[in-house]
């Protein structure tokens, strides 16, 4: 049998007995191990001595009056569940202590028994849990996610405070029953949620993620992403579902903003070309199912560029926004409306009927409403502005599948409406496509002609009153083949429309300057002036003066012999800009001549404001000399005006001797025309009027 001492030493707890004065009178073996002291060191040790390395749970030193034995000695009451640490070289050993008083017959404490067990592992686990809980609290506090938990067996739902905050509630007081989340679901989402749960719960999946909408306290719905975990028992039965809700409002707004940037016009709010192309696919699909015709309307505002250039882009933008609103109010909600860019809009009409004739009639009625709406005066700031539109229409049915082709057809029809006087609509027909194909081929041929040097310079001589050649006007011919010679009336207009006038004009100007450089070495040719026609498109180009300077420098042509001929249409542009450009060119030594004077925007202000050196009387007035007394009077007035402003004067289109005599008698300084000399290749001109030539008319 065990002795009392043996039993004492084999107890699974450390036991230390203190006398009434606090001194240790006994300590079993486990107590010695846990306290890190031998029996000799412990017996007789005082509890108030300062060499004990006891610490509190927070790691601070444990004062002597808080030692378990001293607490019992001072209070006479037992102490239970007290945790203290013993600091040693290998760390802190944590002890769970219980202390009991033993009293004598008088009730005085005779001794104190302190029992303690090693709880270091438990303490470490507790600290680890506290750290984890702290981290979790911090994560949840810093997160915008809202935790929740649903006990499926008890049908109890835990809603976090953030769950309620996300929906505009400070807390869920009075609302946090298990069915609250169902009541807050968007009605359209309830069938989806029910179907999702019916699939999730019987399955073996332990994770989930889905989007739905919950009702906010303010009345709107909040889009949330709910993700979480399904806890199951050993048989796979779902016991509870836990998760977090993420507010998707900001993400949805960002997605919507990106979508609008990609598919909508920022100025008018209308769908853009990309959106329209996608919608037209759906329109074609619906047309195939219904068997009905549709129509695509291509609308372009008339004279919009003039408003933009003269009144500023702010007013132009206002007009575009008002036009968009007028179109919205005119077309049906089922019709597609888009802005392609600039002042171009597209309307797609669906369900116009099974026959082409009936569909065309219905489209025509809608177009009439659109033209009327767009044609209404609108207030642009202080300006009451009235505009019109030109509309191209193409019908299509289930057999049409090429969207770009439909847009091109409507665009061609719109240009036909422009050509027919504007403020009207025209339907596309195959002849328009043929004309467009011919136009494209002609443009390609012109580009090839420029690169191959097929555009040749001709010169028509100009003579003074004594019949001496004093200059020439440069004309251009297109030598397309060995025998095909095309005049400027067949390609200059097209060149201006297509933008080819810029490279063509540069080619003509460069070849003219090369001729002037050659003439400079000839006694006869060196005194001649050379007039070169300049397009309004060239004068609009801010790089034009620099380009002319480069040509002059590269060829060595004398600039004072170069006359740039402008038509009066150039003065319909920005006067300040054109005037500045003309002065910049004049500073290089170049002179300007005003062509076709009296036929366009004639104004004395032009003669006063612009740096002109010569006026050219239009052939229409010269032709009627001797036939129309009014024409003769106009010619006399122009000559007198030119003299007043000290301008040279040139009459063109002189074909009869009577015209020549009238002009010379009237004081015209020089003239040109078939009577005096026909246009000829520049090489022939140089041969005819150079030092070895005749030199007279």
From TrEMBL:
Cross-referenced InterPro entries: Biofilm_reg_signaling, EAL_dom, EAL_sf, GGDEF_dom, Nucleotide_cyclase, PAC, PAS, PAS-assoc_C
Any one GO molecular-function label of the UniProt entry: catalytic activity
Source organism superkingdom: Bacteria
GGDEF domain boundaries: 292-430
CDD domains named among the record's database cross-references: EAL (cd01948), GGDEF (cd01949), PAS (cd00130)
Domain EAL: 439-693
All copies of domain PAS, residue ranges: 9-44, 132-204
Residues annotated as domain PAC: 208-260
PROSITE patterns per record: EAL (PS50883), GGDEF (PS50887), PAC (PS50113), PAS (PS50112)
Protein name (Swiss-Prot/TrEMBL): Diguanylate cyclase (GGDEF)-like protein/PAS domain S-box-containing protein
Organism: Pseudoduganella umbonata
């Amino acid at each position: 049998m065990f002795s009392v001492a043996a039993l004492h030493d084999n107890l699974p707890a450390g036991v230390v007995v203190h006398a009434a004065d606090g001194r240790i009178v006994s300590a079993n073996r486990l107590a010695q191990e846990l306290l890190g002291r031998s029996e000799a060191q412990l017996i007789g040790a005082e509890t108030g001595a300062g060499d004990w390395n006891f610490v509190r749970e927070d790691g601070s030193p444990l004062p002597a009056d808080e030692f378990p034995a001293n607490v019992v000695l001072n209070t006479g009451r037992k102490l239970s569940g007290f945790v203290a640490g013993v600091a040693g070289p290998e760390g802190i050993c944590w002890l769970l202590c219980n202390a009991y008083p033993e009293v004598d017959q008088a009730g005085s404490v005779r001794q104190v028994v302190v029992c303690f067990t090693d709880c270091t592992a438990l303490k470490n686990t507790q600290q680890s849990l506290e750290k984890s809980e702290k981290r979790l609290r911090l994560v949840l506090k810093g997160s915008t996610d809202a935790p929740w938990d649903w006990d499926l067996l008890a049908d109890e739902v835990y809603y976090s405070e953030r769950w309620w905050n996300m929906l505009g509630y400070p807390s869920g007081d009075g609302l946090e029953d298990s069915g609250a989340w169902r009541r807050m679901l968007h009605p359209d989402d309830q069938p989806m949620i029910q179907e999702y749960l019916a699939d999730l719960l019987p399955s073996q999946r332990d994770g989930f993620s889905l989007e739905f909408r919950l009702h906010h306290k303010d009345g709107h719905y909040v889009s949330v992403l709910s993700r979480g975990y399904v806890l199951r028992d050993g048989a796979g039965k779902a016991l509870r579902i836990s998760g977090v809700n993420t507010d998707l409002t900001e993400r949805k707004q960002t997605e919507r903003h990106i979508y609008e940037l990609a598919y909508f016009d920022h100025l008018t709010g209308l769908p853009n070309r990309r959106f329209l192309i996608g919608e037209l696919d759906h329109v074609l699909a619906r047309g195939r199912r219904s068997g009905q015709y549709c129509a695509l309307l291509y609308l372009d505002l008339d004279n919009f560029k003039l408003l933009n250039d003269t009144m500023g882009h702010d007013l132009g933008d206002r007009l575009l926004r008002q036009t968009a609103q007028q179109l919205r109010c005119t077309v049906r909600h089922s019709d597609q409306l888009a802005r392609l860019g600039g002042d171009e809009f597209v309307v797609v009409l669906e369900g116009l009927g099974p026959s082409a004739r009936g569909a065309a009639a219905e489209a025509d009625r809608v177009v009439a409403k659109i033209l009327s709406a767009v044609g209404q005066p609108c207030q642009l700031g202080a300006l009451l502005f009235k505009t019109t539109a030109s509309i191209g229409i193409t019908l299509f049915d289930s057999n049409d599948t090429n969207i770009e082709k439909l847009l091109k057809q409507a665009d061609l029809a719109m240009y036909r409406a422009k050509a027919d006087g504007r403020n009207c609509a025209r339907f596309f027909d195959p002849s328009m496509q043929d004309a467009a194909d011919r136009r494209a081929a002609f443009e390609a041929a012109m580009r090839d002609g420029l690169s191959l040097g097929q555009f040749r310079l001709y010169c028509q001589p100009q003579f003074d009153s004594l019949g001496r050649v004093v200059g020439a006007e440069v004309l251009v011919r297109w030598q397309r083949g060995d025998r095909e010679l095309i005049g400027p009336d067949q390609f200059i207009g097209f060149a201006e429309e297509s933008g080819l006038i810029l490279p063509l004009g540069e080619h003509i100007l460069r070849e003219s300057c090369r001729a002037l450089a050659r003439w400079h070495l000839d006694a006869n040719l060196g005194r001649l002036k050379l007039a070169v026609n300049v397009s309004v498109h060239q004068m609009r180009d801010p790089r034009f003066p620099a380009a002319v300077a480069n040509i002059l420098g590269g060829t060595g042509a004398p600039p004072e012999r170069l006359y740039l001929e402008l038509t009066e249409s150039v003065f319909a542009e920005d006067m300040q800009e054109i005037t500045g450009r003309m002065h910049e060119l004049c500073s290089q030594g170049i002179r300007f001549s005003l062509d076709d004077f009296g036929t366009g925007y004639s104004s004395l202000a032009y003669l006063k404001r612009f740096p002109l050196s010569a006026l050219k009387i239009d052939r229409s007035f010269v032709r009627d000399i001797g036939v129309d007394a009014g024409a003769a009077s106009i010619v006399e007035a122009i000559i007198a005006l030119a003299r007043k402003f000290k301008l040279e004067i040139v009459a063109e289109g002189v074909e009869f001797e009577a015209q020549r005599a009238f002009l010379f008698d009237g004081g015209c300084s020089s003239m040109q025309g078939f009577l005096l000399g026909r246009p000829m290749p520049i090489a022939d001109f140089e041969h005819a009027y150079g030092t070895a030539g005749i030199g007279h008319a």
